[in-house]
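User: Modeling request: complex.
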Amino acid sequence: KAGVTQTPRYLIKTRGQQVTLSCSPISGHRSVSWYQQTPGQGLQFLFEYFSETQRNKGNFPGRFSGRQFSNSRSEMNVSTLELGDSALYLCASSDPARNTGELFFGEGSRLTVL
Amino acid sequence: AQSVAQPEDQVNVAEGNPLTVKCTYSVSGNPYLFWYVQYPNRGLQFLLKYITGDNLVKGSYGFEAEFNKSQTSFHLKKPSALVSDSALYFCAVRERPMNRDDKIIFGKGTRLHILP
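Assistant: Request completed. Predicted assembly structure:
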């Protein structure tokens, strides 16, 4: 089985721009979660989607949004970028039917905001 | 609310020695517990999990972890460290049974340095 695929792997933006990151989960996994990783804050939960519905949301401003498509692929968008948004954005998929909550992570998208 | 604490930002161990990476957790019910490892510029890789049963869980790359309910701990261990074990290690917890608003919470991570 192919793993979780995130694109792009690296990107550079300037303040005020917006960015869209993409995540393709493992085949058959219907749940997709997004995390922001920074050296100071560690792994911060952004949101989780299941069957095209946002099931859970972390404490991030409204500039951070996401969605999930019918094929379980997910995108997250950050608008009006700030310097502090520079981070590694990790996507993880899981199979809720297994009821253990184990996550499978992609390699991440490293965003640098200048 | 769930929480996870990894009290050490960094752990240094000589190659060949046993290693321990500490983790304590707090949940209102019974936990699912996980350890993940992250190598530079990579995503997190699953190492092992505790769901139920034997308190000693064995995982990938020779790692194991011991669930201690009374101390609410889930320390990661390996009998003999390798230089290639140097990485960032995350402990995570999820309350069970899983509810709609449930999510996995990660600790801040512990950087493990294995010294040759």
